[in-house]
Amino acid sequence: MQEAGRLLHQVYVGQVDGLPDLPGLDQVWVKWQSDRTNERPEANSVVNALGLCFGQQLVDRLGFRWAVIADEYGTELGCIAQPGDITVFPANATAKRIEKGAHPFFAELFSQVEARVRALHRQPPRQ
Hints:
alpha+beta, three-stranded antiparallel sheet, globular
C-alpha cells in the first residue's frame, strides 16, 4: 500500500525515490482533493495509501512501530510508541480530513505528534 502512495505522488507531483516525504504527502493530498477528472483515484485507496506513508514517517523518524490494534470499535493497523503508549491510526487520521477539502495537514499533524512524543520523553517516569 505504501507503494500506492509513491505512485500517487508520481501522478500528482512527480517522480520520487522511495516514499513521499511530508511536504510531498501534503502536495498529493491537495492535488487529489482538487482533482475533478474521471480518472481521480477512489477516496478509500488514497486514504489508505497516504495514511500508510504517513505512518511510515512516524516509524522511520520518531521510533513508532506498526501494530494491529483491536479495541471496542474494531481492529485497525496503527502506529504505537513509548513512553505513554502513544497510538496513532494513520489511515483513520487521513480519512477524518476528507471533509475539510484541499488543505494540507500531514506536516502539521506530524509536528503535533512529534511535540507530544518529545514532551513525554521529558517527563519523569511514573512510580
